[in-house]
Amino acid sequence: MSSTEIAVTDPVQLAGWLQTMLQLQRTHNEKVHPQWDEQGYPFTRAIWIECAELMDHYGWKWWKHQVADLEQVKLELVDIWHFGLSALMIEYGDDVKNRVAQAISAAEQANNRLEFRDAVETLTARALDGDFSVAAFVNAMRALPMTFEELFTIYVAKNVLNVFRQANGYKDGSYVKQWRGREDNEHLAELAQTLDVGSATYIGDLQRLLSERYFEVTTERRSRT
Q1: Cβ proximity of 175 and 99 under 8 Å
Q2: What is the pLDDT of residues 70-101, one digit of tens each?
């Protein structure tokens, strides 16, 4: 797949999306550990591992037929963004929103034309050096292509799932990730499609639907034991 032209992101919209995502990310990180930014978590290691998973979903094996699963690729990019935002919050502190917005704008204006796999490899290389490159991330998005509106929409839904996992035993291992033979990610996507992401109650509604389905799933599991 080759790079495709997509519009430059509106700076006002981008600022609003970044503000929301940064607030959600900080809240989630604090649930993992109240002093998450002092724990030395290896966010860039998580990023390059996610890059490898992303490549498996996209396909890279020249000796066999592969079909890119673009929905899963986008989910992996969103996971990378979670870790990237965390690293950037530590690096830039209170100025993180402005610094990230500037980096995104500069990368979009540069409009580097990379094949998607090459763009991901650049992102991976920077992460292996201990750095999250906003420019490399933007280049990967644009090569797919994926807009920041898509990133925001999927990010909010995935953040809801991450918070839900933490609240239901993800850290101690008691959380059930397979729901009726499918991963919770798939159920999340299905439930999110029934809601309006622009609604003021979107996050609460998605949390409620996840809780209801998870209760059904865990009830079924207990009845079989």
Answers
A1: no
A2: 988 999 999 999 999 999 999 999 999 999 99
User: What is the pTM assigned to this prediction?
Assistant: 0.85
Q: Provide φ and ψ at 206, rounded to 5°.
A: -70, -40
d(CA 176, CA 178): 6
Q: How far apart are CA 45 and CA 132, in angstroms?
A: 10
Q: How is residue 93 written in tokens?
A: 């502190």
Helix (H, G, I), strand (E, B) or coil at 181: coil
CA atoms of 91 and 24, how far apart (whole Å): 18
Instruction: Looking at the chain, list the stretches that DSSP marks H as alpha helix, in order from N- to C-terminal side.
Output: 11-32, 43-58, 70-92, 96-110, 116-128, 134-143, 148-167, 184-192, 202-224
Tell me the residue length of the chain: 225
Q: What radius of gyration do the chain's Cα atoms show?
A: 18
DSSP secondary structure letters along 98-135: HHHHHHHHHHHHHT----HHHHHHHHHHHHHTT---HH
pLDDT in tens, 15-30: 999 999 999 999 989 9
Q: CA nearest 120: which of 146, 92, 155?
A: 146
